[in-house]
UniProtKB/TrEMBL annotation, chains A, B, C, D:
CC annotations in GO: voltage-gated potassium channel complex
Protein's name according to its UniProt entry: Ion transporter
Lipid bilayer topology: Multi-pass membrane protein
Pfam families: Ion_trans
Signal peptide: none
An example Gene Ontology biological process: action potential
GO MF, any single term: voltage-gated potassium channel activity
Organism: Maribellus luteus
Amino acid sequence: MSRTRQKLYEIIFEADTPTGKLFDVVLLFVILLSVALVMLESVPFIRQDYRTHLHILEWIITGIFTAEYFLRILIVRKPFQYIFSFYGIIDFLSVIPTYIGLFLVGSHSLVVIRILRMLRIFRILKLSRYTQAGRSLVRALWASREKISVFIFFVIVLVIVIGTVMYLIEGEANGFTSIPRGIYWAIVTLTTVGYGDISPQTSLGQFMASIVMIMGYAIIAVPTGIVTAEIINPSRRDNTQVCPQCLWHHHDDDAVYCKKCGAKINPPA
Amino acid sequence: MSRTRQKLYEIIFEADTPTGKLFDVVLLFVILLSVALVMLESVPFIRQDYRTHLHILEWIITGIFTAEYFLRILIVRKPFQYIFSFYGIIDFLSVIPTYIGLFLVGSHSLVVIRILRMLRIFRILKLSRYTQAGRSLVRALWASREKISVFIFFVIVLVIVIGTVMYLIEGEANGFTSIPRGIYWAIVTLTTVGYGDISPQTSLGQFMASIVMIMGYAIIAVPTGIVTAEIINPSRRDNTQVCPQCLWHHHDDDAVYCKKCGAKINPPA
Amino acid sequence: MSRTRQKLYEIIFEADTPTGKLFDVVLLFVILLSVALVMLESVPFIRQDYRTHLHILEWIITGIFTAEYFLRILIVRKPFQYIFSFYGIIDFLSVIPTYIGLFLVGSHSLVVIRILRMLRIFRILKLSRYTQAGRSLVRALWASREKISVFIFFVIVLVIVIGTVMYLIEGEANGFTSIPRGIYWAIVTLTTVGYGDISPQTSLGQFMASIVMIMGYAIIAVPTGIVTAEIINPSRRDNTQVCPQCLWHHHDDDAVYCKKCGAKINPPA
Amino acid sequence: MSRTRQKLYEIIFEADTPTGKLFDVVLLFVILLSVALVMLESVPFIRQDYRTHLHILEWIITGIFTAEYFLRILIVRKPFQYIFSFYGIIDFLSVIPTYIGLFLVGSHSLVVIRILRMLRIFRILKLSRYTQAGRSLVRALWASREKISVFIFFVIVLVIVIGTVMYLIEGEANGFTSIPRGIYWAIVTLTTVGYGDISPQTSLGQFMASIVMIMGYAIIAVPTGIVTAEIINPSRRDNTQVCPQCLWHHHDDDAVYCKKCGAKINPPA
């Protein structure tokens, strides 16, 4: 029994064996199908014309996911730890909305929960070789979190000021019906999205908008600069060398001698 | 008396003690509430339905800010220096509009002044650890101010030329009613905002617009390049030192010894 | 005979001789004319007014391309290898739609195939000095393919979640008629394109959109950072060599000797 | 006489003396006023209400520029060289439209020519300290001209293909009335401008548009990467060192020893 369990564990939780890989590929396909189904269900004419087909497919997928969920609980060594882990909760939320839907027909908002099935893809990908690339991107973003926070805080203060000024200049007649709407316009403009649902009509408003847009030019360069710098020099932050002579500790990664006192420092391993 | 004053000074002006930190957090909350209030007041239906509630809250906040303002004047050693300092003026402008509003009912533009309360957040943040990240960003932007000025000047000349040409091509019938409006369109296009409130209708105009947009591709790269370079190599600029022993010449501005061979290099004059 | 063939080969396939260059320039001109023709043909009023002119020009160009195609088959040493090569197929697809059009009048979709003539430009450019610049760009994009894939996968997951949430918030009355349409809106917003054909109407929707746009600020920095890093340090990746004499470790992949101290370093296996 | 001429030369052509600087500042003011005048003249209601005022101001400015133009011819050593130089032609074009306007009343297009007065600003700025920053930007753009040309050529091929495909998918009913219009849409989308004057209406078209937009994410990173790399490492291109032993010639700027054969190479002066 224990050997079967071990084998099933390797198939379901790992991806080193051919059957383990096959299991992952099949699961990936079912997840993608399931997400596509949730999307298609929201399209009015598909929902009406293919109601039965969608219904049957949904129950097949829910069946597969339910079986997989119980299999995982049976096989894993510490079931409760799995059930309350991140992926355990995701797995639970992937199947429960369909069952609830039996009693609460028409509970429309449950689609959001079923779309969470998509997050199950990450578990499969975690095993693949693309993770390293992903990790280095996350690390770069994480390392620049302080600078990006400061930047976003500055942008928020800026759009509040711009939004208020534009609310006063343009007024309610030109679509700037309140300060929050003015702020919404300021964000749409500064991020260069530019829907055009609200746009300045007065000459003064258009002049102000022009300044905001040109300002946005310099501003959009900042997050790019932060992230690029972090990707290019990822390790400058994590350098923990301390000069044995003068105790200075901001050495570059390629430093062999302390640039402050000339003493030799230990190169990174 | 002097000791109480010293303690109050530590609470109000500094953030090293627990009570000092608590004071800052409470103040931050009141400021954010106050800014939210100004925003909500501008929304038509909220202004009508909750007039009394907003009024009462506004007076409570003004009361807190007024008390805080006088406390600061009393506690600080040089009251006049505080009153005419940047934050002293902000503090004054944070409370005065509400009092003026007693006599000049309906003075709508005063909302702008009250939104300045937001700037008081910066005083609190100045004490936090996020400031270093902010300072390095400001330094990078400040160090690239000349290049960015030149760039923005070039962009202004470019949009004036493009705006004039488009005004002639499209004419008043297609929304390009004047050269300034043409320039406004050129800015909206070159910054990739693209509201669509004015867009070229003639074939020649759309061809010109296509060239402007593709040109904008190369142009938007310039400020990003400037700021990124400044963030990556903040101090490399203008450093012309060469190590007399190993001839390496990418020394940081603060280097005294060559980090490659340990030889002493001549510091900049 | 063999010498004439060799000379024709040099003219048609190479660009080292003056006649070879002339041939390429003429061919480039004919290709550009041909592509312009396909475009003009699609403009309704030109198609009606200049039907005969376009027809004659089209047949002249097809004649030139057909002659060139057979010449290439005759001259090349391994005709079949050429016929089934990438450019051989492109050359074939460049002429065949016009002949098919003789029998199937009005087969509108054939214009797509004729636009492929444009790809023939690449063969001519392959011989020019601009190729090196192109190759280094392609290499930079290719080297960052893993990171960009991970990034695009992350963006896709993000827009699916955002699109679903917005579909629920805004609903079908405000243009978010289905989840796919919500996802379309999310992509339009996150990439800062911002058509404005669908835009949030409710306050909550505009608030969500604001968060998405500011998030887009940090997100757009990521691909820029990846590509920039790759262009700046094209070969630094994965190189773990350390000079045995001076311990410097930023060697290029093709380095055999340390460029800092001249000691021999071990080439990668 | 010669000394007066020398002094006038210093005042008009140079900016080292106080009077020379004053002359430049006054001229800059007149130029900006003149450009503002041309812009204001294009605004319908200003043109009607202030016709006389604009007329008088225009003649005063033309008078100043005419006087300056003849003064320059008189003072300069080689008058003909000045007249046919870039700035000589600009100076001539700055005054002639007003005189022509005496005979050809209503010649509207002449405004374009008068806007060229703006280019005279560059002559004044050439003498200022901002030029160095400008030059380094121009150098960075110039050094990356090959890569940017290849990039723009690639973008043009891409938008032609995308535009043709979208013309076939969406058709004339949805605003894609011809291939050139499809290409215009593709440029508007790929550059993230997004006017929204033409936007895909069919599901397939919106799906295609989504792919184009996400593709645009990676594409917009390329010019930024090129220019950033050039600003960060401006001198890597101009390295002309050749290894005296193995004749390899792609050395980095910081190379002291040839990384191919280990021979010492001459460091840049």
